[in-house]
Amino acid sequence: MKLFQRLNKGLTNTLVFTAGTALAGLCTGVILARTLSPGSRGEFAAILLWPGALSMFGELGLGFAFSYFAGRHKDQLDGLWTLALGVSLLWGGLLSFAGILLVPSIVHLSEMASSFLRLNMTTVPISLLMGYSSYFLLGSNRVFEFNMVRLCSTAVYTVGIVFVALMARDTVINYTIVFIVAQLLACSLSVYFVSCRLKPKLRWEPTLVRPVFIYGGKTYISSLAAQMNLRLDQLLMSSYIPLAQLGLYVIAVSFSSLIMPLFSAMAIVTIPGVTQATDRMTGGRQIVRYIQLGFIIGLPSVLIATLTAPWIVPLIFGRQYMPSVLLGQILLFAAIFQGSNIILGNGLRGLGHPGKTAVSEGIGLFVTIVLLTSLLPILGALGASLASLSAYALVTFIQMYFVCQAADLKWHDFFVFSRGNIFPGFDVLKQWK
Fold first, then answer.
1. Fewer CB within 10 A of the end CB, N or C, for the chain?
2. What contacts 57, CB < 8 A, 6 or more positions away?
3. Are the C-beta atoms of 238 and 246 separated by less than 8 Å?
């Protein structure tokens, strides 16, 4: 226990919540694969994907802004909360309305699935409000409540999916309703925590608009580019290839995400670890430590999962998803780079260089677009897997270069492993000599 406490305060706690969320996500993925055909699974993925993409686009980087200002300017909490409510409901409502009108004409869905997509578009303002509320909690150092909101959404969704499957009501519309209910409950919990723990009042302060949006704009480009790198493959696949292939690809993504809780937890604690460092080189070494720790744990896990994928994928998801095996094996290695990018990006923000994260993710997004448009028509889902692996790897090496620049490190610092650096707790053993 002391070892993990020395590694980083809060890492174990955050890892438990993140692992719980990932486990619940894996459970829903298995049930959906077992109860839906690849075509129906692809339709359901599209129904969830597009409202999520609009929420991502509409977030405007304000989550990080609200987190920053809530932590630094507690006396302005009333005005910040009023601004968050206004943006969520007004801007989110506008995005929802636009999505209802335009998106069904872009995605090739059946008439019934298109109606479900329109219904799910109503979750856009709900998603924005939940996200902003969560960042208020995080910025106010309410980490436990922040993690509870993250877990709530997935847990309620998982319980609902299990219930629908057990009741033999396993249809796309019922699964869509479960998702909407989960979003509503998680949003309600986040608002409840903000109201009870922070006790903000409704008070409009127009002087906050400019600084909040300026700060948000600085993080928006990098966040948007990073999210687009993650989702662009499925967005394009939902429009340009048969949805059955998207269903196979979604299963591969679920399988390859098994190692992501480790990287996600380390990414959350990277920012305070870097920002509280005594100097930039020490902060840079914090980033190196987390990257190396992720590699030491992640690579063996990926190798084992890759070798056993031909048995695990059909066993868990069903033999109809056997074509997902090769896709999943490729995406497993892509996941190592994807997880590293989250850590490196947060590390650069902690070092005070969010713009370099934006440059890295922007280059990665450009490469993703080029590769997807080139490979999707030829290789389909396999092309999307190869494009993701290539783009993620490129972003990783670019961000490593920027970390070396910002923290006065050398390239070999990332590749020379030291037990004392990765596991600081082992240094205590020297006292017994």
1. C
2. 95, 224
3. yes
What are the pLDDT digits (tens) for 115-133?
888 999 999 999 999 999 9
Mean pLDDT computed over 279-305: 87
d(CA 394, CA 386): 12
Amino acid letter, 231: R
* DSSP for residue 278: S
Instruction: Give the residue carrying structure tokens 């713009």.
Output: 355
- Alpha carbon 84 to chain centroid, angstroms: 21
Contact 250, 38 (CB under 8 A): no
CA angle 171/248/127 to nearest 5° reads 60
Tokens of 318: 């069903």
C-alpha torsion angle, residues 73, 79, 81, 86 (rounded to 10)? -140
> Mind giving me the DSSP string for 342-380?
HHHHHHHHHTT-HHHHHHHHHHHHHHHHHHHHHHHHHHT
Calculated CA dihedral for residues 126, 127, 129, 133, nearest 10 degrees: 130
Closest-CA residue to 227 (of 47, 375, 361, 26): 361
Type of residue numbered 277: A
∠ CA 42-48-52 to the nearest 5 degrees?
A: 135
Q: How far apart are CA 104 and CA 98, in angstroms?
A: 11
pTM over 0.90: no
CA–CA–CA angle 415, 421, 422 (5° rounding): 75
Among 263-277, 303-317, 333-347, the minimum mean pLDDT is found in 263-277
Q: Which two tokens stand for residue 77?
A: 């909490």
CA distance 17 to 373: 37
pLDDT 10s digits, 38-87: 778 888 888 888 898 889 888 888 887 888 788 777 788 999 999 999 99
Q: 430-433: which pairs have CB atoms within 8 A and are 24 or more residues apart?
A: none
Cα–Cα distance, 433 to 427 (Å, whole number): 11
Residue 142: what are its φ and ψ, rounded to 5°?
A: -95, 65
* Angstrom distance (rounded) from CA 34 to CA 42: 13
Residue 185: CB partners within 8 Å, gap ≥ 6? 152, 153, 156
